[in-house]
Amino acid sequence: MLWSTLLALPLAAAAPSGLEWAKRQGGTTMLRFGCAQVVIDRLDPLVNPGQLPSTHMHQIVGGNMFNATMTTGDVSQGASCTTCAFSKDFSNYWTANLYFKARNGSYKRVKQLGAANQFSDNFSTQIGGGILIYYVSASPGKVTAFKPGFRMLVGDPGKRTPNVKLQNCYRCYTGPNFGGDNAAPCADGKLDTIGLPTDVCKGGIRSNILFPTCWDGVNLDSPDHKSHVAYPSSGPAAFLSLGGNCPASHPVRIPQLMYEVVWDTTPFNNKADWPTDGSQPFYLSYGDNTGYGQHADYVFGWQGNELQIGMDATNCMGAKCKTMVNQDIAKAKACSVKSRVNEEKDAWISKLPGMEM
């Protein structure tokens, strides 16, 4: 998406726009980069630590330390490679997969795409199957990068009612080549929806998930993986919600982290294959065809002070910033984690993996 559009995005009521906020604080840094797939597996070291298999399938990107159990500590110390554009980012990022349910009741996983060519670096356009990651600092020098051992979760897979806080949203691409990708996420009521789009999307479906931007300054995690972080008092009304004030309980400003996933739903655009009752044929991997239960997990793994360098910089946009080191896409795609749960991931299946649980 266009940087000018992002920076001109209106924020929550009483908060300055992204551009106004940046001017007041001395500039904006937006690290926006792709991470290729490291593994697709039914593991969740945050919610179901040590459980093989976990309750539903996930798409995982980032460092090769990902496993069923990820104890507290600095994962960057044990990782030897990463699928992300920044070679010192050994973090792990994961979300649910999307499936198409055909008229006969069988399911097939929907594959993912890279980022839009016209707005991205060459690396991010080639991640096919990965996730686009954003770290934003609208106030350089006043945003504290995550600490070793930090982790968090956003969203609730059990939710089936709309989330008006817009911590996640979907965009129905209006045509091929990311048609309609010309406005910031979760900002346009016509382009974005809180739930999964209900009609054919000619260019695929995009999912954006926004994490909290305030931290209690003490705990690297919490029992629910949420309580140690919070959204600004104004709420996550839109991207770049950094302009809102942090609540007194969570006074430390942390980067605005956002995931962007693009699913190639075009092979399933023939409505003759959709359910006869006209119901939503796309399901997230835990059996949700509303999309309200979209969620995402994060384990911080940047090496040394690398992320803080980016957050302290001014006007870094995209996948290059100051002295931060990049890697080649071929090297990133060579990084992988062996699947721990032997399940079909690409063929038609009779039920979603884990639904019997």
Structure write-up:
- β5 (98-101) and β6 form a beta hairpin.
- Helices cover 7% and strands 21% of the residues.
- The protein has helices at 3-7, 18-25, 306-312, 329-333; strands at 29-35, 37-41, 58-62, 92-96, 98-101, 107-109, 131-137, 151-154, 168-172, 192-193, 205-210, 214-215, 229-230, 252-253, 256-263, 282-284, 296-299, 317-318.
- The longest helix is centred in the N-terminal third of the chain and has 8 residues, at 18-25.
- It has one domain (3-333).
- The protein is globular, with a radius of gyration of 19 Å.
- By secondary structure, the protein is mainly beta.
- Mean pLDDT is 86; it is low at 1-26.
- The protein is built from four helices and 18 strands.
- This is DUF1996 domain-containing protein.
- InterPro entries: DUF1996.
- Residues 44-302 form the DUF1996 domain.
